[in-house]
Amino acid sequence: MKKILYFSFIIAVIALNMQCKPKAPESSLNVLTPDEISQGWNLLFDGTSFNGWRNYGRDSLEGWAIDSGCMLALGLGGDHANDVITIDEYENFELSLEWKTSPGGNSGILFNAVEDTAAKAIYEIAPEYQLVDDIGFPDKLEEWQKTASCYAMYTADPNKTLLPVGQFNVSKIVVNNGHVEHWLNGSKVVEYQMWSPQWDSLKANGKWKDYPLFGSARKGHIGLQDHGKQTWFRNIKIRTL
């Protein structure tokens, strides 16, 4: 009887500790540490407004909401209806952000995005760091369609660490004189050189062969996709190199 009471007490204490374990306060989101400030980082999202952002090809912003300190793509407008871009443009930079998607979700981070009337969508111009539910996406995915790949160009390491849907992953893109690195949850998963012979060959013989503007810009906006499913972004920060 004493043993039963003892173990019951231990279980009750563990349960109480789990209930009382503090969640990360929203006040700790979308802020820079003193070290990050000294290293030249700047926030692209303050957690409360869409200052510094607009829809691709428009001067306004719609199709997004702010949810618990996140930029939330509502996924209501269909395929790429409400992609957003930064107002500022970047050339050589390091970009870091946290994201999660809904089951079956599909989104992306784009860079070197420019607006041209010859392009119907941002992905026809800007390279994309793919974000997708690798496991639960309803259609079969090619390797170049999976998370952290350069979409339809370079595949990410298949041994990457991707957290389950509903948990936040940390993605990083480093662009320096055309050399690009994709990072996921602390590990580099692919790197490539834009405008190299290999780049040109992949473009000429793949999905982008009929899109001459794809990857042609040397600098441009940072973009986030609204691709028909809800996706959350937070702690979006950048520093120029």
Characterise this structure:
It is built from three helices and 13 strands, in the order ααβββββββββββαββ. With 241 residues, the chain is an alpha+beta fold. A hairpin with a 2-residue loop joins strand 9 and strand 10. It starts with a helix and ends with a strand. The model is unreliable at 1-22 (pLDDT under 50).
Structural key phrases:
disordered N terminus; eight-stranded antiparallel beta sheet; alpha+beta; 241 residues; 3 helices; five-stranded antiparallel beta sheet; Jelly Rolls; single chain
Give the topology:
Elements: H1 2-20, H2 34-38, E1 42-43, E2 53-55, E3 64-67, E4 70-73, E5 84-86, E6 93-101, E7 106-113, E8 128-132, E9 169-176, E10 179-184, E11 187-193, H3 197-205, E12 221-224, E13 231-240
Antiparallel strand pairs: 1-13, 2-5, 3-4, 4-13, 5-12, 6-9, 6-13, 7-8, 7-12, 9-10, 10-11
